[in-house]
Each structure stands twice: as structure tokens, then as C-alpha cells.
Write a structure and sequence with these properties.
Butyryl-CoA Dehydrogenase, subunit A, domain 2; alpha+beta; 477 residues; Butyryl-CoA Dehydrogenase, subunit A, domain 3; 50% helix; 17 helices; globular; 2 domains
């Protein structure tokens, strides 16, 4: 099939899926005043494929015709660099908000290819052929994908079989000739309200006796028994006060599997407890590469907006301002450089280029642990008008506008331009959208502690230890 247009994508979501928002059922996600904005945002990926200026980056030619570059299985470091560039560009068009409807799902598909092949070799299963068939279905039909990985967990100090009830982790409740039945819930399922398919992955290691929880599969978004309770940052507002969130939105859901039937050809892991952890980990390493790629437009905006505001405020020559701008530039460029280096030092596994786990986790850790300091620098340069500025309605009333223009003038811009920039900075540093981005920085794609643990495990410390012994005069034996 041909690449979908944005209009075809929107029409394809009118499929009877079960979605709730703020206590009410949503009959049509494309027409909903909030979720519809997320649909419009997600359509960026489809628009890029048909835009002459973007097509070369967004589309690749395959043996049966063109398809989205997101679905290109990376074989070389250059493939990863091109994928990163596409993610960065789409997020730039999305006003610093990642589109994610193909990024996250293909991260999962790449991981499934690798782990499915490993399970088949060690256990004589046939998962890889199922994964390849599902991958081709998604690629050739240009589908949007969500990933349901994080279980709701219940008591965090207990495993899935020790909870008050068994449904805090998604698990298999029955099997028959047709397939399996799923029950339980996942949380933080991004873009699921406007995806075509939900890929279910395990969230952690499991052990003997927990076989029912070691499951991976794919479920259509309108599958009977699948229920989505949607949430997200709340405001939309006007384009003057909320220049990003009035135009761009991404939904998250509590995704409930209420006895959802899954055919066997869509089951990719079923009871292999020793492979649940490796599958979760492999997905996360691809997805952290995606994560830092989509953070780049945001950190670039920190630099550009702060520099421009310093100019508007007449303080660009101040030493302390230049100091903060230099640190913001360094923050942005270190994130970018580490992402590219993770691609260049990719490992080839079963013909698939996997970003360097050590380097991409260092990049993600650096981004996350410096994020709030970067916000402080941006806010310091901007000033208190971030939270005390006039409203759009004030500027629409001529008498009030006159007062605003007189008293809130800028050093090198019109008053309105200064206020528009101030509102943009407020959007990314002080609003509920800013809070959403800040929580993503800490928790999305894995926690800070998980990143530290991965770095510790991945780094080959032996050469450094050997060097220390050599200089200290310690015998290697």
C-alpha cells in the first residue's frame, strides 16, 4: 500500500476504539477537542512523507515501494544517524514535542527481531517469523504504533505473584487453539489514543512461577476488551499565551486489558521468563537513542530563546548572562554529540545496528540530571514576566494595549514580540506543559538509576584498573 496521507491517517482512527477522557467516553478521537489536537500533532509524520522538502529524510525506497524511514531496520551507523535526524526534524516541526507514533513502535520491533531470533535459536520456537510478518504488516500499511510496557505494579516492593490481586501486571489468563487471553493494566502508554496497534512488552525480569507475566504481543487499538483512560497536560489555551500546547499535544493512557484475545500469530513471547528481561532491556536501549534524539530541539530552544530574550532585555553583553548561555550551548551540544557518537559506535547484532548502550545511557543521564539546572538558567535570563505578564485579552483592548506597550517595552524589539517570546519561554519552563516535559526528562525511557546501572554494567573498566595497577606498581597477578 502507498504511504498514508494525513487525512487518511485521521480517518483510519475512526474505528470504534474504547477511550475515556475526564470521566467521559470519547466517541471519535479525531473530533475530540483535546485528543483531536494529539491526532493533528501525530499527523506530522504523515505530512512529512508527502512534503517535497521533507520526503528524502522521511521516506526510503524498499523492494515493494516507498515506506517510512522509521520502519527501516538499521543495518549501519549511518542508518541510525539518519533515524536520529528524522526524529529530531519531526520533533522540531512538533514544537519540541516528539511525535512518537512510529518512533517508539519501531524501537520495539527492532528489539523483537533481535530477541525473537535469540529465543528461536535457544528454544526452537518460531517467534521471529511472526515478528517479521507483523513488522511487514505495519510497514506496508504505514501504521502508527504505541508500546504498552510499564505495568501499574501495585506494591512496588512485591513481585507480580505476591500482590493483592494478579492484575497489577499484564498476564496471560488462558490459552486455546486460537491464541491467548490477556488481563491487567499498563500505565504511561504514550500516543495510544491515536495509534493503530499497541505492542505489549514485559517491563522487567521474571522468574520461575511467573510465566504468565512473561508475555509480548500486538493488539489492535480497537480490540474488544481494550480500554484506554486518557490523560495528559491539561491546558490548550490561545496561541499567544500557549504557543506550543495550543498547537501540539501527546496523550498518555492507563491501558486496561480486560480479557483481550490475541491470536497466536501476534504473540511474540509467552512464558519464557528468562527472556523477558533481555527483551525489556533491548527495547529500552533503542528507545533511549530515540529519546535523546527528540530532546535535541528542546535544548536548542533553550539556547535560542535565552539568547534572544537576553537581547530583548538589553543584557546580552552581561558576563553572567554569557556564562549561562555558554553553559546552555554546552548542554545542548554534549547531548547532540553523545547521541551521534552512540550511533557511530553501534554494535552489529544479527545484522541490526544497535546504538552503543553505554554511550546512549550516558547521553540520557547527562540530559536528565542537568535538565532542571538548564531550566533555571533560562528562567534567570528571562525574568519574572514569565509568570506575571499580560494576557492575550489585554492586548486586544486598545486602551490596555497602549499601557502595555508603554511600560513593557523592550531594548531591541516591539513590546508584543518581547511578550510572545516571554510566553514561549514560560511554556517550556513554568506551565503544565513544562511540568510534563520535566517529568519526561526524569522518568521517560527509564529512570536515572536505571541509566546509571546500565552505564556501570556496560563500561569495560578493566583497562582503567590495569592502568591504575601499573602506575601504582601492583602486580597484575
Amino acid at each position: 500500500m502507498a504511504l498514508m496521507t494525513a487525512d487518511q491517517y485521521k480517518a483510519s482512527l475512526q474505528d470504534g476504539r474504547t477511550v475515556f477522557y475526564r470521566g467521559q467516553p470519547v466517541k471519535d478521537v479525531t473530533q475530540h477537542p483535546v485528543i483531536g489536537l494529539a491526532v493533528k500533532h501525530a499527523a506530522i509524520d504523515y505530512q512529512m512523507a508527502h512534503d517535497k522538502a521533507e520526503r528524502e529524510l522521511a521516506v526510503v525506497e524498499g523492494p515493494t515501494g516507498p515506506f517510512s524511514r522509521y520502519y527501516q531496520i538499521p543495518r549501519t551507523p549511518d542508518d541510525l544517524l539518519q533515524r536520529s535526524a528524522l526524529i529530531e526534524r519531526a520533533t522540531t516541526l512538533g514544537g519540541t514535542l516528539v511525535v512518537l507514533i512510529k518512533e517508539i513502535g519501531t524501537d520495539a520491533l527492532f528489539a523483537l527481531h533481535l530477541v525473537g531470533a535469540a529465543i528461536d535459536r535457544s528454544k526452537g520456537t518460531n517467534y521471529l517469523s511472526r515478528i517479521q510478518k507483523f513488522y511487514a504488516h505495519c510497514r506496508d500499511n504505514d501504521l502508527a504504533l504505541a508500546v504498552a510496557q510499564t505495568d501499574v505494579k501495585g506494591h512496588r516492593g512485591k513481585g507480580p505473584t505476591d500482590q493483592n490481586h494478579p492484575d497489577y501486571y499484564v498476564h496471560v489468563t488462558a490459552e486455546d487453539n486460537d491464541g491467548i487471553t490477556l488481563r491487567g493494566a499498563k500505565i504511561h502508554t504514550s500516543v495510544s489514543t491515536n495509534a493503530h496497534e499497541i505492542i505489549v512488552l514485559p517491563t522487567r525480569n521474571f522468574s520461575e512461577g511467573q510465566e504468565a507475566y512473561a508475555v509480548a504481543c500486538a493488539v489492535p487499538a480497537n480490540a474488544p476488551g481494550l480500554k484506554m483512560l486518557a490523560s495528559g497536560y491539561g491546558r490548550t489555551g490561545n496561541s499567544f499565551e500557549h504557543p506550543i500546547s495550543s498547537q501540539h499535544k501527546m496523550m498518555e493512557t492507563l491501558t486496561i486489558f480486560d480479557d483481550v484475545k490475541v491470536p497466536w500469530d501476534r504473540v511474540f513471547l509467552n512464558g519464557e521468563v528468562d527472556m523477558a528481561g533481555p527483551l525489556a532491556k533491548t527495547f529500552v536501549e533503542f528507545h533511549r537513542f530515540t529519546a535523546v534524539s527528540y530532546k535535541l530541539p528542546l535544548v536548542d530552544l533553550f539556547v535560542g530563546a535565552s539568547h534572544l530574550m537576553a537581547d530583548y532585555n538589553g543584557i546580552l553583553q552581561a558576563g553572567h548572562v554569557r556564562d549561562k548561555l555558554a553553559k546552555l550551548i554546552s548542554y545542548a551540544q554534549i547531548c547532540r554529540g553523545m547521541t551521534r557518537e552512540a550511533a557511530r559506535e553501534a554494535n552489529l547484532v544479527d545484522g541490526i545496528a544497535v546504538p552503543s548502550a553505554e554511550l546512549i545511557n550516558i547521553a540520557k543521564l547527562y540530559f536528565a540530571t542537568n535538565y532542571h539546572q538548564a531550566l533555571a538558567w533560562v528562567q534567570d535570563i528571562a525574568g519574572g514576566l514569565l509568570v506575571t505578564g499580560p494576557s492575550a485579552e489585554d492586548l486586544e483592548e486598545p486602551q490596555i494595549q497602549q499601557m502595555v506597550n508603554k511600560y513593557l517595552g523592550a531594548a531591541s524589539s516591539s513590546t508584543e514580540d518581547r511578550l510572545r517570546l516571554m510566553n514561549l519561554i514560560a511554556e517550556i519552563t513554568t506551565t503544565d506543559f513544562a511540568g510534563y516535559q520535566a517529568v519526561l526528562a526524569i522518568h521517560a525511557e527509564g529512570s536515572i538509576e536505571a541509566e546509571k546501572m546500565t552505564i556501570w554494567r556496560q563500561h569495560n573498566v578493566e583497562p582503567s584498573v590495569s592502568y591504575a595497577k601499573q602506575l601504582a606498581g601492583i602486580n597484575e597477578d
